[in-house]
Amino acid sequence: MSKPLNIGLIGYGFMGRAHSNAYRQVNQFFDLEYHPVLKACCARSEEKIKPFQENWGYESFETDWRKLIERDDIDAIDICSPNNTHLEIALAAAAAGKMILCEKPLAMSVAEGEQMCEAAEKAGIQTMVWYNYRRVPAIALAKQVIDEGRVGKPFHYRATYLQDWTIAEDVPQGGAALWRLDVNVAGSGVTGDLLAHSIDTAEWLNGPIKSVVAKTETFVKERMHQETGQVEPVGIDDACMFLAVFENGSMGTFESTRYARGRKNYNTFELNGDHGSVFFDLEDPQYLDYFKYADPQSGDKIEDHLTGWQRIHVTNFEHPYMDKWWVPGCTVGYEHTFINALADFLQGLESGTSAQPDFRCGLRTQKVCDAILESAKTGSWIELG
Question: Could you give the 3-state DSSP secondary structure of residue 22?
Fold first, then answer.
């Protein structure tokens, strides 16, 4: 008999929708001991949260997250609210013994993230940070290819994450829709919003980053704030580029911006090693590109007139997660990455092991983000230790 897991979700925006869809779908595709129950959702505005509750099928709603956490019928708290709320909510949820699933980035700073980790570990609760791109089947296949030694000794890792939605100078900052442009709510701009994804993926695939040097830029210096109606300085980074050295000795280049005209969600990475290379593009997510130069076991060069990049259509049952979905040749989409992530979390509850990335792993990404922002201020290399 399956076990209910009563969910209390905080937030009703983009991520609230993505997570709610995962809770509704996960048991239809994965054979799991636990099944999520949409017990309650929460937001400050009843006018906003009630239609959300009715649309997604939550049993009830709250307008005070503290009351949600106090409820005895809630097992897990899902934090989908802005970054500046993560710390307070997580500390209260941990104190109440609730499991916590938290949107990325983990916190506004390393100091906040450390408090969240300590509270969760003291309470002995399961945690997860929703770095959903690990659950793109093609990225999970890249991890498998790397772990099998098919790339070999790594030399270069390069990542880009490009968007274009904040180019116009009349786009305001702040408010429910544009809080990511308000430094007091978001903590940072593309570093915490976009590069955090790139960093989590990079360290998952290529190991820890040892040191960084960075440069950031804010192209539009002032914007009208939606909550005050006043033109105020913009404190977030519109663009960031940084160099990295990994502990395995490989070199990394990372670039992110919201000023790349024509790029909507262009998230790519490439890893080059002595045996081969892998490349991925989120705007073409069903494919992983792989170049095989040498045999992963012997290291001998492949002598073949057909040697070259091969494009793998990641839809076969032997590919990560794909045996849970459709027949080969039928692709999955963005929403499926959250379902895959939730399935891993629920399987972790069954086995008693934390699904990754948990809070402690999310803190590691936060440390890299903080080092990037510090380097951008000082112009110096920052050692992560």
Answer: helix
- The alpha helices in 294-352, defined as continuous H runs, are 334-351
Angle (CA) 64-356-27 rounded to 5° is 70
Model confidence at 2, pLDDT cuts 50, 70, 90, reads: confident
**In the block, which residue shows the tokens 């869809």?**
21
| pTM recorded for the entire structure | 0.97
**What pLDDT, on a 0 to 100 scale, did the predictor assign at position 373?**
98
pLDDT digit string, tens, across residues 174-206? 998 899 999 999 999 999 999 999 999 999 999
Of the candidates 195, 186, 150, 194, the one whose C-alpha atom is nearest the C-alpha of residue 291 is: 150
Amino acid letter, 265: N
3-class secondary-structure state, position 346: helix
Report d(CA 361, CA 352) in Å as an integer: 17
When pLDDT is cut at 50, 70 and 90, the band that residue 303 belongs to is confident
CATH of 3-132, one of 3.40.50.620, 3.40.50.720, 3.30.70.660, 1.10.230.10: 3.40.50.720
Q: Which two tokens stand for residue 26?
A: 């996960």
Q: How confident is the model at residue 297 (pLDDT cuts 50, 70, 90)?
A: confident
One DSSP character per residue, 214-228 reads EEEE-SS-EEEBTTT
Q: What is the pLDDT of residues 317-365, one digit of tens each?
A: 999 999 999 999 999 999 999 999 999 999 999 999 999 999 999 999 9
State both tokens at 42.
Answer: 């929460």
The topology under which CATH files domain 134-378 is Dihydrodipicolinate Reductase; domain 2 (3.30.360)
String of b and e for 249-270 (b: at least 16 CB within 10 Å)? ebebebbbbbbbeebeebbbbb
pLDDT at 1 over 70: no
* Contact in structure between 322 and 315 (CB atoms under 8 Å): yes
Backbone angles phi, psi at 165, to 5 degrees: -80, -5
Domain ranges of the chain: 3-132, 134-378
User: Residue 355: which of 142, 161, 150, 76 has the closest Cα?
Assistant: 76
Distances in Å between the Cα of 275 and the Cα atoms of 95, 115, 149, 209 are 49, 42, 8, 22
Structure tokens at 165: 């939605």
Contact 332, 19 (CB under 8 A): no
At 295 the pLDDT is 83
